[in-house]
Amino acid sequence: MSESEELRTHLDPARLRELFDLKGNVYATRGGAFEEDIYPPFAHLRETGPVHEGIPGPLVGFHGAAVFQGLPEPDRPHYSAFDFATCDAVVRDSTNFSSSSHVPGSEEALHESSILNMDGERHHRYRTLVQPSFVPKKAQWWIQNWVQVTVDSLIDSITDAGAADLNVEFFAPIPLLTICGSFGVTIPEALDIRAAVTSDGLGLDRFMQIVHPIIASRRAEPADDLISVLVEAEVTHEDGTRQVLSDNEVLGFAFLLLAAGSGTTWKQMGITMMALLQHPEWLERVREDRSLLRGVIEEGLRWMPTDPVFARYVVNDVTLGGVDIPAGAVLHVCFAEANRDPARWERPDEFDPSRPLQSHLGFGGGPHICIGMHVARAEISTAIDALIDRLPGLRLDPDAPIPQITGMYERGYSSVPVRWDR
């Protein structure tokens, strides 16, 4: 059975729609059904002061229950920052702001199992274990082993149809199958894993059931994949002793990479592709000169990042933007609005890939900047490159409803309906 035939056999569109439906149960606790444009109220907040008391959702009109980094935390005071200078400074300042809800140095903090919640030297030591697999020069390793074959097979499975919802039929499976492929799991297992990582922890047993035997296998016989990298990695402790990661630590790394990689990149693909489809002059320019695609991807990340908000826990009493914030508070860092700060970008609300490249917060920043950002860029570039090459006359489907951005804490297009010439 060819790769494309296997994909058609196992990638049931109905199940994909269920697992990746931004308006469905999967994203309900991220404000998935919230359809208001967050940018005008965000801009008003930034213009009236860089820091405000409150949570981003309620500040812009979303009042539903939310489970996200820094939320719900009902017993802590909450503040939100909106300008680039403040947001950039906060994510770089690990002295006053922590990714962990625990007191730095406490017993609870020392037992954090996810690098997402670690800070300081401990975070650096653990992150360094996997960082070499995600540096720019490793992008080709990902593309050649997993990304390209997945992209080609998915296009093979839709090319004869002449129309598709790229969001579900193409973008959503790419990061999932890429990261799961790097673990050595099958396509049906990858879908089960997707269900596990989107269940707010309720499906972890299935994730462990699939991945734990792979860890044991790679300890016995390493392969050229990510699980092998993790089981062979050694962490150096403060006293100089070295230790390989435990099975639970490998599982923790694997779960984090899956949750982050398969949950965000596909939405950013949809945002980037929609920007091109809605600016056909740029689609044509990229078709003629693929070197322009880098600027398109970076502009998409600046203009509309799929994760508009992240949080930090305030370690010490601080004053930001004239606002006193007590230790123990949650500070929500609004990357989406920081990326549209007119103090840094001219015409910030416009999608303009020709603007000079400069750093943005589309992948966050500081020590916790997205570890998989170079792989994400490679996935987006490979996917859009292939669509332009293989689907002539690619355009928005004029008969489909106009796609709308949805979501509060995770945002994306609920569909990307297209047609092409057969």
TrEMBL record:
Pfam family, one: p450
PROSITE patterns hit by this protein: CYTOCHROME_P450
InterPro entries: Cyt_P450, Cyt_P450_B, Cyt_P450_CS, Cyt_P450_sf
GO molecular function: heme binding; iron ion binding; monooxygenase activity; oxidoreductase activity, acting on paired donors, with incorporation or reduction of molecular oxygen
Family: Belongs to the cytochrome P450 family.
Protein name: Unannotated protein
Originating organism: freshwater metagenome
